[in-house]
Structures are given as structure tokens and as C-alpha cells.
């Protein structure tokens, strides 16, 4: 089903996150999924879904290179809500081939290697997780980076044949942090050590005050700080099965 302009505009004026999530579930019953990277924004959405028993499947991608703190957060989150988060892994043969031919940390050597690693460990598992869904919910916020500031709240992805829905698009970082505090939502211990956007351990560092929130991701590169999960389709050179979780 494709949404009309009026239906899309209603999401922009939804009175709350829960109302927006309920609206999307009503329009696409049983076909809405949420990809959580276990980041602060995603923990807000997970809290809203689980506390309100919304019929949305939550999944995360285990790249095999995550911080131990991220695994610990996954454990605390499922224990807190007593509900499962589906975990998707990369194809073992893809990882074996890449690591054997290019090297276990070859993502530091070139943008090409880095994109290939992200494609194997993130993009391909994401595409598998999205199969059969009509709506993909993400925790993307406009102020996170220049590449995200012009994203719409809801957009049709032709390549994936589904809607991508960003219900926190207009939230500020402070609103996210306030929500986590107010409702005692579990969050990654690394956030208290200067990490804002947290991905794979070898590709994430803490940032200094005043730095771009995504400056700690792939900091050795000068290209766009995206893994392909949330790139606009037109921006994908050679479309490495493009489109992106965090
Ligand atoms: Fe590989 Fe780094 Fe991308 Fe993780 S963030 S998939 S380790 S290149």
C-alpha cells in the first residue's frame, strides 16, 4: 500500500511518539519492523514499543565486532522488558572470505574495504531482516549529521519496496537523554565515557565537546560518516546493495 500526502502529513503532527507508532501499525498491520542499533534513540523507541505492547518486531544486527558494553546492554534490555529482540548475523562465508583475502582490520586501509566490511556485516543482514516488511522504523534524527538533516520523516524506498519511518526525526539530543532518564531506560555504559554514536568497536571512538555527533565514527575517513544503512539511495556509488542500521 502507498500512502497519500494527507496520511504522510499526519505523522508530522502526531502528538507523541506512541501515537505515531500506533498510527503506522494501524496502516500496516503485522508489517512494521524496527531496527535497533541499541543507541540512545533506539532505546527510546524500544521502550515505547515494549511498554505499550505495540505489534512491531524489534531486531538488531550483531556484526561480530561490537563493544562488550553493547552486548551487555542487549542483555539488560531484554531482561528489563522480558521480550525478545531478534538478532541477525552476517553470512559466515562472506566474513570468512573477506577476512581471509583482505585482512581482519582491512577497513582501516581504504574506504572501499570499509564499505565492503559494512556491506557484509550490516547491509546484507539488514536486507535479510527487512524481508516481508512494509515499514522499517529507525531512530535517525535530523540533527545527527549533515547527511541526515534533510531526511523526511517517512519516505518510500524504491529499491527495498517499503517505507522508512523516522519517528524521532525532529527530536533533539536533550529530549532523547531526558526521556531515558525519566523512564529509567537502559542505555550503553559507553555514553557516560564520551561516546555518542556507537557502532563497531574498531570503528568508533569517543568525541570531544563541540565535535559533530558522528565524528567518532570512521574518524580516519573524510568521506560521509555512514555505513550505507541510512544513505539516500541516489548517493550510493555502484550501489553496494545500498541502503542501510546505524
Ligand atoms: Fe566493519 Fe567497521 Fe563497518 Fe563494523 S563499522 S562493519 S567493523 S567497517
Q: Top keywords for this entry?
A:
disordered C terminus, alpha/beta, 35% helix, globular, 7 helices, binds iron/sulfur cluster, six-stranded mixed sheet, 246 residues
Plain-language structure description:
By secondary structure, this protein is α/β, with parallel strands linked by helices. It has seven helices and six strands; from the N terminus they run ααβαβαβααβββα. The longest helix is centred in the middle third of the chain and has 20 residues, at 111-130. The model is unreliable at 232-245 (pLDDT under 50). The structure holds iron/sulfur cluster (SF4).
Write the layout of secondary structure elements.
Elements: H1 5-12, H2 17-27, E1 32-35, H3 40-51, E2 57-61, H4 68-81, E3 86-88, H5 92-102, H6 111-130, E4 135-137, E5 154-157, E6 162-165, H7 173-182
Parallel strand pairs: 1-2, 1-4, 2-3, 4-6
Antiparallel strand pairs: 5-6
Residues 63, 65, 107, 114, 117-118, 121-122, 199-200, 202-203, 227 line the site of iron/sulfur cluster (SF4).
Low-pLDDT segments, ≥5 res: 232-245
**Anisotropy-based shape:** globular
Mind telling me the C-alpha Rg? 17 Å
**Main beta sheet strand tally, sense and closure:** 6 strands, mixed
Residue share in helix: 25-40%
pLDDT averaged over residues:
90
Strand order of the largest sheet: 3-2-1-4-6-5
Structural class: alpha/beta
Number of helices: 7
What's the helix-strand series? HHEHEHEHHEEEH
How many beta-strand runs?
6
Amino acid at each position: 500500500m502507498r500512502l497519500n500526502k494527507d496520511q504522510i502529513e499526519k505523522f508530522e503532527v502526531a502528538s507523541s511518539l506512541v501515537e505515531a507508532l500506533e498510527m503506522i501499525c494501524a496502516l500496516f498491520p503485522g508489517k512494521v519492523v524496527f531496527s535497533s542499533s541499541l543507541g540512545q534513540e533506539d532505546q527510546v523507541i524500544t521502550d515505547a514499543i515494549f511498554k505499550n505492547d505495540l505489534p512491531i518486531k524489534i531486531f538488531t544486527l550483531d556484526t561480530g565486532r561490537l563493544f562488550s558494553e553493547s552486548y551487555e546492554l542487549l542483555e539488560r534490555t531484554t531482561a528489563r522488558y522480558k521480550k525478545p529482540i531478534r538478532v541477525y548475523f552476517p553470512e559466515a562465508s562472506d566474513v570468512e572470505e573477506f577476512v581471509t583475502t583482505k585482512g581482519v582490520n582491512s577497513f582501516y586501509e581504504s574506504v572501499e574495504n570499509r564499505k565492503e566490511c559494512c556491506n557484509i556485516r550490516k547491509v546484507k543482514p539488514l536486507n535479510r531482516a527487512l524481508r516481508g516488511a512494509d515499514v522499517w522504523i529507525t531512530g535517525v534524527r535530523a540533527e545527527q549529521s549533515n547527511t541526515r538533516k534533510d531526511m523526511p520523516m517517512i519516505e518510500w524506498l524504491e529499491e527495498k519496496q517499503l517505507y522508512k519511518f523516522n519517528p524521532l526525526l525532529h527530536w533533539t539530543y536533550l529530549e532523547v537523554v531526558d526521556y531515558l532518564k525519566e523512564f529509567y531506560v537502559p542505555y550503553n555504559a559507553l555514553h557516560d565515557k564520551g561516546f555518542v554514536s556507537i557502532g563497531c568497536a574498531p570503528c568508533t571512538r569517543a568525541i570531544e565537546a563541540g565535535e559533530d555527533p558522528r565524528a567518532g565514527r570512521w574518524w580516519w575517513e573524510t568521506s560521509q560518516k555512514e555505513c550505507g544503512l541510512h544513505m539516500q539511495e541516489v548517493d550510493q556509488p555502484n550501489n553496494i546493495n545500498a541502503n542501510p542500521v546505524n
